[in-house]
Amino acid sequence: MALQSSEKNGKLSADLERVVLEFNEVGVIKFGCYKLKSGVQSPIYIDLREIISFPSLLTTASNLLAGTIYNDDAVVHDVICGVPYAALPIATLVACDHDTPMVMRRKEAKAHGTKKVVEGRIVPGNRCIIIDDVCTSGLSIIETANDLREVGLIVTDAVVLLDRQATGVANLAQHGIKLHWALNLTQICSVLVGAGHLTPDVAQQVEAFIAGSCKNEANGDLTALHAALGVSSWKALHFSERKKLSQNEIAQRLYQVMLDKESNLAVAADLTSCAAVLALAEAIGRDICLLKIHVDIIEDFTLEFIMDLKKIAGRHNFLIMEDRKFSDIGFTVSNQLGGGLYRIGDWADFVTFHGLPGSGIVEGLKTGMKNCSRSVACILVADMSSKGALTGPEYVSSAVKIAEEHRDDVVGFVTQTDLSSCDASFLRMTPGVNISAAGDGLGQQYNSPEEVVGRCADIIIVGRGVTGAADPAAAAAMYKTRAFAAYRRRVDKL
């Protein structure tokens, strides 16, 4: 039997008060100091995933959601979709109890079979209601809605068991989604205080936390959402989710290559002949997402070499980064990118630059692009892997600010650190990866794929670990496997 929600009048019925007390009794409601997915420290944590171990509570939760959906002002819908993964059991019960079709969204598309992101029978034009357990920023609901809309479903409403009273309502409204909820934090605290299970002091701490969480809600945009995502939680997001946050088509393409090939490996082809670079690219192309070159060290450079390299990249589906590390004034940089012997802007997908000259260097790169046949995505060198590098915290902070001010063109960083203050739309690339050595005697310091992916990297950059191997193709395959496995462990863990 559906339980009536409290959304309309804000008051809890006796049935809903009983539900809150049952959740508290089995430990679903926790008080203390908990780090949320957004990185924010919260005095209360509601772990609704635990209810799958209590069949009666799972049934109660589904009835509570059903009461929110099928009340007097019933939400019009043809199909149900639960946000993966916590809401899937609840959504399934609601769908079965009310004889409503259901579809399922995958967090990542399968690499085999139909490669669908949304499973189930899709009827374009049908109205789909999204079900989730908890709403804080609304990010998971937005991501789910985007995928459902891409296959032709109409999404205007979402229903959650618990609204944490943060920025979710405003963020969802910006995406054309109205949030409906059965319970909120204030009501839960009120019930527990009344039953003697919570002291008024702790309840006041929760109310203060709610007030702080709502400060940015009036903005009604994704600024607060992106800021929340920046505090280390970028590590928990799948590449498919990160792709949607990026505003740059080249970065989005790189994310897709990473997903399609299950590779977050870039190889630094620091070789001095055209033939050597081309032979390496052909040998390792199937296992990399990105090839990094230094065109100015190639002794026999020709534009024909670039044409051949682009053909290999197209055949093996990888992108090319020219590690030029631009670091001059804007006028000079514009000519370096858009002119000269190498015509870098006509063929490179990505270029690197230093932030030392200030934000004017980005303007110079953008001016240079006007003289090119295509756009180029820019990667800012936030810090370096060499011993004694002068890229200290103040420089890194300034570099991040430059990137945030030019996020249409600056899509990521070369970094050795977390950059937790920077949001999840930016790529993190980390060089200095080699499993066989601690350094090269020239200041380069090495780390393992697992260490850098866990610490700071979306993409590992391997140089001599591949180029100096007896079998570069086998070495690339090994680094690819280890790096992508480390990425999967990272997102599953967090």
Give a verbal description of the structure.
This protein has 494 residues and is α/β, with parallel strands linked by helices. Helices cover 40% and strands 19% of the residues. The protein has 18 helices and 16 strands. The chain has helices at 14-25, 55-69, 88-97, 139-150, 168-174, 185-194, 200-213, 223-230, 239-245, 249-261, 274-284, 303-316, 330-338, 360-369, 393-405, 449-455, 464-467, 472-493; strands at 29-35, 41-46, 79-82, 102-105, 118-119, 127-135, 154-163, 178-184, 265-269, 290-293, 319-326, 350-354, 377-381, 410-414, 427-433, 459-462. An eight-stranded parallel beta barrel has the order 9-10-11-12-13-14-15-16, surrounded by seven helices. It has a six-stranded mixed sheet with strand order 5-4-3-6-7-8, with helices on both faces. Strands 1-2 form a two-stranded antiparallel ribbon. Helix 1 packs antiparallel against helix 2, helix 6 packs antiparallel against helix 7 and helix 13 (330-338) packs parallel to helix 14. It is elongated, with a radius of gyration of 25 Å. It starts with 13 loop residues before the first helix and ends with a helix. The model is unreliable at 215-232 and 439-444 (pLDDT under 50).
